[in-house]
Each structure stands twice: as structure tokens, then as C-alpha cells.
Amino acid sequence: MLTQLRNIVQSVAASSDLEQALHTLVQQTCVAMRTECCSVYLANAEEQRFELMATQGLDPSAQVSMAFGEGLVGVVGKRAEPLNLAYARKHPAFKAFPSTGEDAFQSFLGTPIIYRKKVLGVLVVQQHQPRQFDESEESFLVTLAAQLAVVFAHAHAQGGWQGAPSPVLLEGMPASPGIGIAQAWCDDSQPRLEEVAPACHLDTQGELDRLDAAIDDASTEFRRLRKRFDKELQKDALAIFDLFVHLLNDPMLREDMTVRIQQGDAATWAVRQTVEAFSARFAAMDDPYLKARAGDVKELGQRLLYFLIAPAGSPPPISTPIVLLARELTAGMLASIPRALLSGVVAEEGAANSHAAILARALGIPAVMGVSFSPAKLHQKTVILDGHKGVLMIEPAEALINEYQHLVQEEASLQSTFETALATPGQTQDGTRVEVHLNAGLSADSQIAINQGVDGVGLFRTEVPFLMQRRFPSEDEQVKQYRAILASYPDKPVVMRTLDIGGDKPLPYLSIEEDNPFLGWRGIRFTLDHPDIFLIQVRAMLRASIGLNNLKLLLPMISGRNELLEAKALISRAYQEVSQEAQHAGQSLNIPLLGIMVEVPSILYQLDSIARDVDFLSVGTNDLTQYLLAVDRNNARVADIFDALHPSVLHALASIAAVGTRHQLPVSVCGELAGDPVGASLLVGLGYHQLSMNTRNVAKIKYLLSRLPHERLVMQANQMLALDHPDEIRAATEAFLAAQGLEALVKIGQLR
């Protein structure tokens, strides 16, 4: 039976179109189950009906359509469970369709085809003999439907779903907010690393020369792109191109490629092997920011491959606005099309934290990543790209286009209004101060521009330089990097998180293999087991802060007071050493404030006891949500469960804020929730007066808070704590914001 299942699913998946796939399905299912009849009905969500799409045994010319809940098929779809009947006509829901010729069939077995809680259709088998299908037959059909659900869902995403609502809606990950309305333009001109086959050479020096030339050409291109955007972007976004140049000249990458060429590999094959090895290290990590660096390394490989192959000719010029669709979005693609003609970008691969996505946000270009699409079916079709929700609508109705065009006008007006809030202090309408900080750590060389609209850096990640070398960076190397960050924000606090590495983020020079890295040897657990590494990093941070005195230390993954006290002892030791050195040099060193990340649920129950041991708390809502809900936030199968507005998360946040109030301890939030209008309004209502977020959200959140009275925010947050479903909390908070005159922001979030 397993072999038959596999053969049916493989045959259906290999079909050229959905019509052929359904015809193959019903034919082979009849053979496998030895039945006289098999039919498949697909759900038309727009009209709320099930429609007969393919059959073996009934009249194929029959037009059968029944409402959800109508007939036996409707019952199966409505209940979302199998129905096994020996005498189908005796069931009260039975409805005859004489045109199908089904009068001859007595027994009926139907099972729903379900994908991510949605009923996509119903699969039915029938026989002349009046009998109930046995357990093995029912199990076979249920298993077959479950496996087919994935195939059908993919066909729907490719725009090949017959009976689907119009417009076809493709979903992905929102990477850059905004709305784009234009023709889809599919770019398939970039060479792919995966297409490079193993190859040898007879001229080692010639291949080395080709590699050197490709590296030079790619470096020149990135410098040119940096110069082009010099007046359009802030330095933190421009640092992306500096990072690419830095990586292209990284000794590790160059040496690995050189060694492979010297061993006989062609330059193209050497590039692929080296880049894939480096990219895999980042791809295996849990942290979304670091995970996205895999795409950056791969982009470098793609550009090297491009210059190695040197394709002849160039694609035709673009003269009208487009929404660019590509397998992978690169900085080069964004730069090759005039900004006025680029209404949005969609990528089949990539992450919302990739540097290409970051660049899209900096340029104000709506972007969605992880969208499965068929270039042949979408090229030059009218589309609406919603970068707020991460959806692409194919050939939408005129009324929907008009609605989104109106929304675009509202967004443009709002954005200019947002910008006026940048120069003002963050505060609510009635004057309650709310500090707005920046989540930083954009590039490996750590060039971050001063953002006058923020009160400092709420989170600076220190992992990247550790991950991009063959060895642990020296103390002096770290001092240079940290000094550049601290000096960029004079008189403003900069919170530096100590090394959050290990487990799911292994170093290339220190392999770590674990069955469950999410609960393994990472963060403070790793550094406490390596006090030498921890001391060097803390010493470097302290040395970098001499004369600036704006450093704040943050410890990740603290799960108990014992870890905190052990870390404090090492920090005290490092401080004594650096302080003595500073005194000998005629300098003074202030003791930095110390805080912990609140992200492991166990620490929630010890906050009162550790309040005297720390100077501040910082809540990482991403990991806190992940651990509270036991949901891997990067797993698409359970992504719909991950929700920072889950009641348990809100109650945890309220509890943390209450601890801060009791002990007069500053508490900040540095997760994604702080940069979301709904999240920010709830956080301030719960008692948070420090929010840290990505640059793109600063102006919006400052404007939002300036329009809301603190007293009303507190009342709203308390009311939300009484609700027991994330959707209810979101809808009620959006309604509250709309009632305060912020309906445009709410509408942006609601439209799909």
C-alpha cells in the first residue's frame, strides 16, 4: 500500500497541469483501491461551493456544484472528517445528481483534503456493492488525501488552481512595508550556484587569474553601487556594500577557493563549494538576523559566478513601472532598475533580514520574500504587492486596485507626517516619556550611522565578527569594532549583548552538534563554560568605552540567578583589570550598567529575587514567545501558532513590567513587537517606557504614540489581558487605534 501511495502522489505531482493531475489521481486511486468510482471535488472559496473537477466512474460531462454543507460531499467538507457509508442514499444529507449516473453506486467513502486547517476539497470513492469500506481502505484514502494536500496547495500557489477565488493570492514573508501596483516582471537572468557542475581544469594559473578578475569586478560593482546610493541612504544601509567588499576580500573565502583551484577544481566549481560551505554555517542558525547572512554569502557567490561566466548581452531595458519577481533578490537587482520604475520586489528565496531586504526597506521599496510562483504564468500580468502582510495578488479586480491606490495615497501622506515626529522626543499625547532605541548590528564591520531620531542603541549584536573568521577575534580587534559603535552615539546609551553563540549558531572553528540546539549549549551557557572567551570580550567592551562611558552590558539566555552571579563575578574581574590599566594611563573607567535578556520562561519566576543584581531588563519578545508557546518560529508548519499577542505572552509581559515597577528597574523591549503599531501601543499600556526597534519603524511608532493618551493605553492593555485569543486581541486593539483617528494605519494592516 505504501508503494501505491507513493506512486499516486508522485504521478500527480509530476503532471503538467492540474487537470491532468486530477485525471491521474482518480484513475490510479480506482486501481489501487479496486473500486468502480473515484471523484475529486475542489473547494471554490469565493462562491462557498464544492465543484466536481475529475471522476472515474461518473459521467465526466456532468456539471456538479454544491454549497458547503450540501450533500454528502458538503458534509465531509463541513465536518472536515471522513464519512463511510454502506447505503449512501439512506443518509439524511444525501442529494441525488441524476446527470452523473451515480444511481448504480451504493457505498460511499469520502475524506477531506486539508492543508493548514483549510479544506481544499473532498476525495470520494464509491462502489456498486452496498458495504462499508474497511479500516485499511479508509486509512489509505485518508493518508492519500493528506499527502495530496501539499501538492494541491503548491498548485494553488502557482496559480494553477481551477475554481480558486480571483485574484489568486500568493503568500510570503513581509520584508519591506508598502504597496506596489504594476505589471509583474520576472527576472531569470542571474546564474545559479546550484547549476554549477563539478569541473576540472588544466591551467591552474589561468583559473586563479579568472577568480582574481571576478573578485575585482564584483568589488568594483559594489563600490559603484555604494557611490550611486550615497545621497539616498543613511550610512547604516550603505554599509551593506562595504560588507560585501569586505567579504570578497576575506582571507578565509579567498584561501578556500584558491586551495580548491590548486587541487584541480575549475574556478566556478571552487566558488560553489566554498560559498555553499560558508552559507550552510549561517543557514543552520536559529537567530533570524544571523540566519539571513547565509543569503548574503550566497549573493556574493552569485555575483562571482556572474563575472566568471560573463554572460553575453543584457536584458531589455525597463520603461514602465514593474513589480520585480526573482528567484533571489540581490542588491544589484535593486540598483539596476531606476527607483521610479520599481514598484516592488518579490523573491522566491531569501529572508526578511537579508541585506537585500534591508536595502529595499532603506529605499522604501515594498518587498515580500519566500513566495512560490510560476514565472511563465505571472510575467507581465497586473499585480498588487502588499509588503505589510506579505501577499501578492494576481490580476485583481478593478475595485480592489482602486482601493489599494487610495491606500497608497494615504501612506504617502502618512509617511511625510511620520517624518515630522523624528525630531521630537518619544512621548504619548499627554506627555508620558517613551524612549525609542535602535536594534543594531547591521554589518560585519559594524558601521552604524547616528540616527538622531533615537535615544540610543537598545540592542547591538556582537556575533557577526566571531562567525566570519577562522579563529576567535583578538581583544584588540574587538576593541576597534566596539569603539566605533560607542563613538557613533556620544552621550547616548549603547546596549551591547555579550556573545550569543553556540548550539544552533556554531562557530566555523568550534563545531557543536546537538539533537535539540534550541535548548542546548548557547548564549550565556557557552560563554560561562569558556570564561577565557567571555573575559576577552568584556575586557574589549570596557576598553572601548573608556572616555565615552555610554556602554551597557546585556547577558543573553539567562535562565537562573546562578548564571547571573557567575557572569557578574567574571565581569567584575574584567573591570578591575581594565580599570587598573586605565589608571596607569591617566584615564578613568565608569562601571557599566548590567542587564539580562528576559527570554527564557524560567527567569520569569526569579525576577524579584534577581532585581537587586541587575540595573535593567531587556525583553526579547521573539524568543520569549517561541519558548512560551513551544513553537519554532522558523518552521512554516507551525508558523501560524507563533503569535506575540498570545494571551500567555501578554500576561508574561505584564508580569515583567510589574517587576520593573516594584523595584524601580528600567525594562525595555527589543523584539519585533516593539516596532509594530499594535504591539507598541499594548507595551506602553502594560508599563514599558523603553522600546527598541529597527530603523524603519522609529518614525511611525513615535508618531503613533504622540497621538495616544497614556491613560487610554493603560485601559486598553488591561482590557486585552481579559481576552483569550490572539485574533480577538489584535482586532480589538486595531479597533481602538482606529477610534483614536489612526484608521489609516489599521487599514494598512487589515487589507490583504
Descriptive notes:
This protein is α/β, with parallel strands linked by helices. It contains 25 helices and 22 strands. It is globular, with a radius of gyration of 29 Å. The two termini are 42 Å apart. This is phosphoenolpyruvate--protein phosphotransferase. Its cofactor is Mg(2+). It catalyses: L-histidyl-[protein] + phosphoenolpyruvate = N(pros)-phospho-L-histidyl-[protein] + pyruvate. Belongs to the PEP-utilizing enzyme family.
How are the elements arranged and paired?
Layout: H1 2-13, H2 18-33, E1 37-44, E2 49-56, E3 65-67, H3 71-79, E4 83-85, E5 107-115, E6 118-127, H4 135-157, E7 168-171, E8 173-176, E9 179-187, H5 204-228, H6 235-248, H7 251-262, H8 267-283, H9 288-309, E10 322-328, H10 331-336, E11 342-349, H11 355-363, E12 367-369, H12 375-378, E13 382-386, E14 391-394, H13 398-420, E15 435-440, E16 457-460, H14 464-467, H15 475-488, E17 494-497, H16 524-529, H17 531-545, E18 551-555, H18 561-584, E19 593-598, H19 607-610, E20 616-619, H20 621-629, H21 647-662, E21 667-669, H22 677-686, E22 690-693, H23 698-706, H24 710-720, H25 726-750
Parallel strand pairs: 9-10, 10-11, 11-12, 15-16, 15-22, 16-17, 17-18, 18-19, 19-20, 20-21, 21-22
Antiparallel strand pairs: 1-2, 1-6, 2-3, 4-5, 5-6, 7-14, 8-12, 9-13, 13-14
